[in-house]
Amino acid sequence: MEPYVGQKYSFWSGKTSILQVLFDDLPVKQTFYLEPTMRVAKHFIDTVISLEIWDCPRNVTVNTLGASLADFSTIVFVIDIRDLYQHPVSKLVEFIVAACQIHPDINFEVFVHKAEILQEDDKIENFRQIHERVMDRLVDESPEFEQFPSNFHLTSIYDHSPREAFSRVLHKLIDSLPYLEELLNVFCSITASPKAFLFDTSSKIHVATDASQVNQATHNLCCDYPSILNSFGPLYRSNSNDPRTSRFSPTPAPTPPPTATTSTPTSGTSPTGTPPLTSSSSPVPPSKPHFYPSAATSLSPSRPGTTLTYHLVTPHLALLALLPTTVYDLRRGVREIWESGLRGSSEL
After folding, report:
1. Cα separations (Å) of 105 from 96, 114, 269?
2. For labelling alongside 231, which of 83, 93, 111, 259 has CA 20 to 30 A away?
3. CA nearest 155: which of 207, 118, 129, 203?
């Protein structure tokens, strides 16, 4: 069963903009032209796991949602950072109380969005007020909510904060996350890498990372690099399977002369009424092997420097890591062996 992720919002908070920018590569400037959500819209996202995201309008309630909250694994509530009034807080509390009665294990995530509108001090103050008001209202409902796990994220579509926030949402839905994190810990230990991520190549959401703390600058750098590669990738192709450019490719076998089987009609009989000729020994063309590109760029011209590396692990999953330049140059074989093992593990 696909995990359900519900998105609820107050007023024009920008939740649809988050979805479009993350999963449809909508340019940020075009989000101004998005219409308000008037009815529940279901989006099917195929990332490292399959997601079904319900984009809900502002007037939806627990009773008009059209499904039980027990069917959802996560609810993401998006609220405008300027919206400090009672209505959005009451709506959020209503959903939390109802969800905890029906599905106590449901994940609740609050995106305090449009952070770019305010100055830094006002941004932090509004974020604090929204968080406090929600928690105070929950305690008023029941003292049991005093220990409610509150997951509030400050986001803006003008930076990578929605990707970081949605990554944390996704991490709670991936059963194999501890296994992936341990693999990255081993990789960092072997290669002396200060940071490594597994990224979904289309949405640039990191699926897993090692145990070291996520640095915002490093995360932003690793988000930008796949975008650059995706922009220029269609201009290039691999020539590793081209016999004209492969020094060690076998000589292609001579093409057999045409026979009656090459022009056999597909109707099941030949024009003379006899069954068509078939050949049980006709060669089957070999399947084309997958091509897993890699790239690297130096972040410091001086020695010893740091190199940002990119290796495609599966068609939709990439390893991005910071490596000391000396390790990147001298221990390439160790890296390639480890990456091959990670690719095999990811495809199981």
Report:
1. 11, 29, 63
2. 111
3. 118
**What is the DSSP-derived secondary structure letter of residue 116?**
G
> Which 8-state DSSP code applies to residue 32?
G
Distance CA 329, CA 296 (A): 11
pLDDT of residue 312: 86
DSSP strand pairing (195-200 vs 317-324): antiparallel
Any idea how long the chain is? 348
How confident is the model at residue 85, as a pLDDT? 64
In this prediction, residue 209 carries a pLDDT of 94
Count CA within 13 A, CB hemisphere, residue 304: 9
Task: With beta carbons less than 8 A apart as the criterion, state whether 135 and 150 touch.
Answer: yes
pLDDT of the residue at 5: 55
- Burial of residue 250 (CB within 10 Å: 0-12, 13-18, 19+) is exposed
Q: Output 125-129 pairs: Cβ under 8 A, ≥24 positions apart.
A: 126/81, 126/82, 126/84, 127/81, 127/152, 127/154, 129/84
Give the per-residue pLDDT at 339.
66
User: Residue 330 and residue 308: Cα distance in Å, rounded?
Assistant: 15
- Per run of 10 residues, the mean pLDDT along the chain (length 348 residues) is 45 76 89 86 84 86 86 90 78 89 88 90 91 91 84 92 92 89 89 91 90 91 88 68 43 41 40 42 47 77 81 86 87 66 60
Q: How many CA atoms, within 13 angstroms, populate the side-chain half-sphere of residue 238? A: 9
Tokens at 305, concatenated: 């420097």
- Closest C-alpha to 165, from 152, 178, 174: 152
pLDDT at residue 211 in the model: 93
How many CB atoms neighbour CB 345 within 10 A? Answer: 13
State whether residue 129 is helix, strand or coil. Answer: helix
pLDDT score, position 326: 86
> Could you tell me the pTM of the whole model?
0.76
The type of residue at 117 is I
Buried b (16+ CB within 10 A) or exposed e, 303-339: eeeebbbbbbbeebbbbbbbbbbebbeebeeebeebb
